[in-house]
Amino acid sequence: QTLDEQARLCAARIQAARGDADKAMAAWQRARTTWPGCYLCAVEAARLADASSDRASAIPLWEAALAIAPVSPVALKQYAAALATSDPHKALAAYQRAVEAGAGDLPTLLGGAQLAASTGDVAAGLAFAEKAAALQKNEIDAWRLVLALAQRRNDAAQGDPARAAGAAREVLRLVDEDVAALLLLARQARAAGDLVEAVVRYDAASRAIAAGRVAGVAPADLEAAKKEHAALLDELHVSPSAAKGKPESVVRQVQGAVQTLFLERLKKRKGLAGALDVAVVVNAAGTVDTVQIVSDSVGDAAVAASVVANLRRATILGGAKRYSFTMELK
Predict the structure, then answer these.
(1) Residue 6 has what pLDDT?
(2) Hey, how many other C-beta atoms are within 10 angstroms of the C-beta on 295?
(3) What pTM, to 2 d.p., does this model score?
(4) Which of 13, 98, 129, 262 could form an S-S bond across to 103 if both were Cys, CB 3.0 to 4.6 Å?
């Protein structure tokens, strides 16, 4: 550096330290004129422009920095962020170059994933989101992006079910009731014939919907979910009037509903018979917290799900306890 160049740099730093953005910008621009190859000058001027109300003015400054240092991760990711609104496709390419150049920080990866998702580049979005999730396993936004994008994969007719399910479970590891994750797992379970799992997931999704925790889920999907849930409960003969009373009374009421379904199933599966051993945990208010099928010699998914769904809605009087009982069907 010449003495003049050093003086220009010092002047720019002094103005920046004083917090006078306009004078600092003018000083950095004078420094750039004196020393066109000054990467620092271009970067500092670009950062000032980024922080101003005219962020678009930062774009040519980041381009000037990249002309000097084409593979600078700092310049590439900031250039991508500045371009995101005006030229998303060019911005996405800059994010990809930034990652290739070593910018593996969470904001860059999430920024790239969100931008790719908005432009419809599902493969790129998944690549960014999965890197973000691997970097920070408790970053729920990353897992939510993986979940959403895995369902949108355009190289598979039904998306990427296994990838989506894995992401949904990670989301639910971090929050109890995420509607998108719960609905994905509920629908997959229903399609696979795992009706107990479907009931549990749809019930949890219904609670979250009722509580208004529906961010990111389209209204049409919420309506579809409500209809799916209602249809499943109707199919399983879940009584609209939940069983209530002492343990013996509740078991009789639930068995009555399940027996009706069992007789329907018997027409399709001749010789169907057996018993289910069930464990139920009840809280002090009588609300059922958990229902577990301990053993099942009936072996019919719909019957087991009917037992679980009816018991989950019951009120069992008698205080906080764990009950075990056997329900015979023939």
Answers:
(1) 63
(2) 11
(3) 0.85
(4) 98
